[in-house]
Write a structure and sequence with these properties.
about 425 residues; alpha/beta; 3 domains; 10 strands; globular
């Protein structure tokens, strides 16, 4: 048994994801696969398009063997924390041989070089980064420039443009996965697959393999059939099932009223304690919320070079969840003591059997069973997960309430 690890959102699972899975299995020669998948909310600070069980079904029916939930406290964070939490889970299983992620160029050499420097932070690099920041450059641009400067100063034959390398979304995440592997001294071997078709952030679909962003935009503005050709058949059918059941796809604007209420009752002091909030930003958010009813307009108004829109949206999700900075710091120091299964097939069951035999990690399939474990560390993760699921369904509950879905929804087991 050779096991491939994937870190995913599948929001939704499309042809590009299927290509990545098939190529990853091919180049790694893996026999089994595990996907760590964001649950109700995703890294860029938005609710997932459809619920986590629907997305798990899409993944399993298209070749993933086991889908494990990435806890909310990891999923809606910066790229660094998102990657660290995901890699930490994969590493804790003590059976994942390799990890494969997408990147814009498909190469590993330059990404590894960047990751090693960003982990070790040589003094020359740190000084250049500080200098760039003092000149008013945004952090991401400052880091890319400092990295390029440092590497070119020490490698005359390296012609990679690290400034542009660190502008691409998949490269950024890939570097963070590599950093996490280095930090925890994981034996997991990394691989990278070059991205095909539209780029991660492309809002329009212009190639046979569209981006998840482009697919979501079409679903919000056009008919469901407009994305059919860009998705595997089973994924498209599950998308139809979800829409027929709920009559809506989830998006951030579905939380307009809830956020407005929260911003009316919270004091600046309370906002300052929220995860990812910096001093002064809470006043800007409160001030702009009085001018803008529409949540996207609020995000656009608050966004600056220093505070990109994805960070603002993550703060909004943290506000909706009342996620405190101090609590997150505590949780991030906890060991991984459980995994929660969202879906699997026969090969996935084989993986679970091996995890049971070789680790002390608790495997949660029936959600209510976690309370029987009487483990406060596990409770710290799952109490937020339950709230996140309730919040997700609150965004699509227009005609009737959907509550305690974690308790009444079972993992998808494919025969």
């Amino acid at each position: 048994m050779k096991i491939l690890g994937l870190i995913t959102e599948y929001n939704p699972f499309h042809l590009g994801h299927k290509y990545h899975l098939e190529q990853s299995l091919k180049i790694t020669k893996a026999t089994h696969s595990i996907a760590i998948m964001s649950s109700s909310f995703v890294q860029r600070g938005e609710p997932a398009l459809v619920d986590k069980w629907t997305r798990a079904k899409m993944a399993i029916d298209n070749g993933v063997d086991l889908v494990i939930e990435l806890p909310f406290v990891f999923s809606v964070q910066s790229a660094e924390l998102f990657a660290y939490g995901s890699v930490k889970i994969l590493d804790s299983l003590n059976l994942v041989d390799c990890i494969s992620f997408g990147s814009e160029n498909g190469g590993l050499i330059n990404l590894i070089k960047a990751a090693e420097i960003l982990v070790n932070e040589p003094i020359e690099f740190k000084n250049k980064l500080k200098e760039n920041l003092n000149h008013g450059m945004a952090f991401s641009a400052s880091r890319g420039s400092a990295l390029d400067y440092y590497i070119k100063s020490h490698s005359s034959n390296d012609d990679c443009d690290y400034i542009n390398l660190l502008k691409e979304s998949n490269n950024i995440l890939g570097i963070e996965y590599l950093k996490a592997l280095i930090k925890i001294k994981s034996p997991i071997i990394p691989f990278s697959i070059g991205r095909l078709g539209n780029k991660y952030k492309d809002e329009e679909i212009t190639t046979p393999i569209g981006s998840a962003t482009g697919i979501r935009n079409r679903l919000y503005s056009s008919s469901i059939s407009s994305v059919k050709e860009f998705m595997p058949v089973s994924s498209y059918e599950y998308l139809l099932d979800f829409y027929n059941n709920y009559g809506i796809f989830n998006k951030l604007s579905n939380y307009n009223e809830i956020l407005r209420y929260i911003l009316r009752i919270k004091s600046p002091k309370e906002l300052r304690g929220i995860m990812d909030m910096e001093e002064g930003l809470e006043n800007r958010i409160l001030r702009m919320s009085l001018k803008h009813y529409n949540l996207q307009e609020l995000v656009d108004e608050v966004t600056t070079k220093r505070y990109p829109s994805t960070r603002i949206k993550r703060i909004i999700i943290h506000l909706l969840m009342n996620l405190k900075r101090d609590e997150i710091k505590r949780i991030y120091g906890l060991p991984i003591e459980y995994i929660r299964v969202l879906g699997c097939n026969k090969k996935g069951l084989e993986i679970l059997q091996r995890i049971n035999k070789t680790t002390e990690i608790s495997i949660i399939t029936k959600y209510s069973n976690f309370r029987k474990l009487r483990n406060q560390n596990i409770n710290s993760f799952l109490e937020y997960e339950e709230k996140a699921t309730d919040l997700f369904f609150l965004g699509i509950s227009k005609n009737e309430p959907y509550e305690k879905m974690d308790y009444i929804t079972s993992p998808y087991i494919a025969e």
